[in-house]
Amino acid sequence: MKSAAQELSVPPFNVGHMIDGSGLMNTALGAAGVDPSCLATDQLLHQVTAFHWLARATSNSNLRLAAAWADRFPADSITAYQLAIPGGDRPIRPGGDGTPEFTRFCVTGLAATMHKSTGTAERIIADALDLRHRLPHLWQRLCNNEVDALDCQTIARQSRHLTLEQALEVDRSIAPMVGRWSWNKLLAQLDATIIRVDAENVKKLADQAAHDVGVFMNQSNEHGIKGIYILTKTPAGIRFYAQVSRIADILARRGHPGSKNERMAAAIDVLANPLDAVRMIAEDTAPTLFDPDPDDDSLFPKATSHDADTETTDPTASEPAAPTHDANAEQDQPDDEPAPDPQDGGGQSNRFPRVDQHRHLAELAIAAIGQIDPAKFRPDATLYVHIAQETLRAGLGVTRVEDIGPMISSLVADWLGHCNITLKPVIDLNVDMTPCDAYEVPRAMRERMFLKYPTSRFPFSGADGRHLDLDHTIPYTPGRPAQTREDNLCPDGRREHNVITHGHWRRRQPEPGTFLFRAPRDGRVFLVDQTGSHDFGCGQFAQHIWHAAAPTTRT
Predict the structure, then answer these.
(1) Whole-angstrom Cα distance, residue 81 to residue 88?
(2) pLDDT for 393-413, tens place per residue?
(3) Cα 307 versus chain centre, distance
(4) Across-strand partners of 471?
């Protein structure tokens, strides 16, 4: 039975495909003219490329060698004597489902030769076997030196808990992206794929992790500074951070001289006294809240029914009615207590005037605070959640939360249960919005561009989010109509935007969603599209592609 790697026609591992490691090492260490300070600028870039390929070939070959080493020591090669004695050799399978077993003792020899610990060598073998048997498309690209070993090992380890069938599905989705997407984007896509193929288990793990929360404090350092570490659900963490930022901004408006970090730390101290925090936020929201209108008696305590009875008089009477006395009551009254004063409001003794005053003030404050809409005390914190139609139909799957990444839908549903939800209509991205003449990008067009391209289009960039700049592919010229349009905009990070505008990087968009970039030093050409970033080099073919993509005059 053929393995998945054999079906993909992975190059056989033999001496003909090996690199002469000793020759490369001697060339790298002792060749004349390698001193970087003696090289021209373009030669420096060529050296970077050469040594990058050398490092990739070395690390990839180590993985292939580790897999071949495990093949030399299969589990059935262990002798009966070793299996019988305590502490003898045993078969192990450190890789995932579908990988072969090998002898435990063989790891030590490889570890010593690699100058690694036994545990590290065992993990390297496990990575190699996972790639060969569970991620065959990625293994093929590794054998062709198209990708870096470290990227492949990370994917192998994060998918090791999956079944063989699930791992093969991850391989089909992820393998084409490795080496073409930035590291952060690749990990986010890997997480989303694992959620998609193993949604039930991911949901179970998320439910378990919900109990691993708490607030922790570390030891104070020698300067008297103590750290606080909070583990909580994402929406609660976002709201708390937003509230701290809100109070820090209020402190700035009140003249706090410290930096933003210092004001954030001071805000924690304010929150430690809830009354201080409530008063500060309330005064900032409604400055006159604690100075009520003296003519407005709605904030004062309402009279009780007993008070109303005692204060009601006959409107026809010209004089107050004379108080009546019960002779029996006077006889039953103890001698050591004074008679009640008929003028003290129904005969109740006012023995604690300060307590009563504070009670009235508390009632006044509570009534005042009660007039505030609680929503005004909540900080502005927004979660943008994108849910695919497939997830809605299945009831469980991947949702994408901006600035957080892919999450299991059951977890996001729990988050949204405690938030104000705003549903936005589906935007048809197949039809471009009407162009405009102004340089500024309209809000609706910016929203559409973010939905089309949530990440930067610069080669191998990891920048993402709504803070990206939208730059005109063909530089804006005042007076020309319809220059701000979707097929003439490109999302970039701020530094990437600057190097294109002022650093002599050049960019073209031959068709919507496909971007070409040309470096200023050596003329290296990069293509970026929905499949990732591709380095065309700086040869004649790359220059031909660049010139063929020159923009034509728009009529």
Answers:
(1) 8
(2) 777 888 877 777 787 877 777
(3) 60
(4) 490
